[in-house]
Amino acid sequence: MDTRPADLTIGFPRESGTERRTILTPALARALIEAGFGVVTEPGIGAGVFTGDEEYAAAGVRLTESGRVWSAPLLLRYKSPGPADLQHLRPGQHIAALFHAEGDAGLLTALQDCGATAWSYEFITEHGRFPLGRPGGHHGRYSEFVHIDGGGWYDANTPVRSIQKGYLLAAERELYDACSVSVDGADWGGSWHASVLAPALAQLGIPPEDWPVSIFTPLITDRTGGKLSKTLYVAHGTYADLPELFLNLGVLLVQHGEQILELVWGEVTRWAREPRRLHRTYTVDYITALLDAGLPAAQLRTA
Fold first, then answer.
1. Domains observed in the chain
2. Residue 184's CB: how many other CB atoms inside 10 A?
3. How high is the pLDDT of residue 239?
């Protein structure tokens, strides 16, 4: 007896905000349709990855209005939808995405309120492993050409972008006969450097003595103890309790003038002079207090 659900439609809503990527490709659509699923999406879903609607239509995808896509029993996204998107959902639906919902009270509340079942790719397990939370399989050879003097625009995923940066810095070392230095956030150190960047540079034939020198800046943590996240702030409005001058450069310069940048630079150079200050984390409240110190006493933030 066939126990499959009657509706095997999978909806792929467009991503939110400025996100250009999508997990739906014509090849994936063909594979799903051949397996018996229906695939629906919104027009323009592939515009950010230079894939036209006609390519999706040729693969058998049905392009329709947003409301019909969001009504599919199973929804697949690349990045997390925002709380406003989740208002489309109803109990009985399933949605999967890279939610990164930890610490985002607004998103977690919206997920609970909509009644749908949410699947976060990074936590899906198979045989005790996380198959969607690790690098993909072998993709074969490919080539790219990036001018060392800039002048162009190139988009790539995070590992490729990191390797590009290391390779170009190594090339600049030879070009300018100078030591290249890569300054990155603390979350790019440790296992990332050891398991992604170093093996890639070795595979590309760059001797270790020509690799860029990596310096990792202190980690800035939010009030939950996690890394201060630009994505959480921009996409979901988190950190509304922090003063605007901390989050908005324009407000900072209006309130303090450009001399505040000298104060910030002084703090950074102090980290460089004293390694005990460099190799540690700082909270948002420490940075906020530092900025407040640049105000005249009568203007210090008291609330």
1. 9-133 (3.40.50.720), 158-216 (no CATH), 220-299 (no CATH)
2. 16
3. 72
- CA-CA distance, 56 to 183, in Å (whole number)? 41
Which SS3 state, helix, strand or coil, does residue 29 take? helix
C-beta of residue 95 within 8 angstroms of C-beta of residue 119? yes
Bridge partners (DSSP) listed for residue 84? none
Q: What count of residues does the chain have?
A: 303
Q: Highest mean pLDDT: which of 54-58, 139-143, 232-236, 256-260? A: 54-58
Q: Which residue has the tokens 């509340």?
A: 109
Per-residue pLDDT for 35 more than 80? Answer: yes
Rg (CA), the chain: 24
How far apart are the C-alpha atoms of 191 and 212, rounded to whole Å?
Answer: 17
Two structure tokens written together for 93: 């639906």
Task: Report d(CA 271, CA 265) in Å as an integer.
Answer: 10
Residue with tokens 């919104």, as numbered in its chain:
42
DSSP assignment of 46-94, as one string? TGGGT--HHHHHHTTPEE--HHHHHTSSEEEEEEPPPHHHHTT--TT-E
Cβ atoms within 10 A of the Cβ of 227, count?
16
10-14, 135-139, 174-178, 246-250: range with lowest mean pLDDT: 135-139
The whole-number pLDDT of residue 69 equals: 96
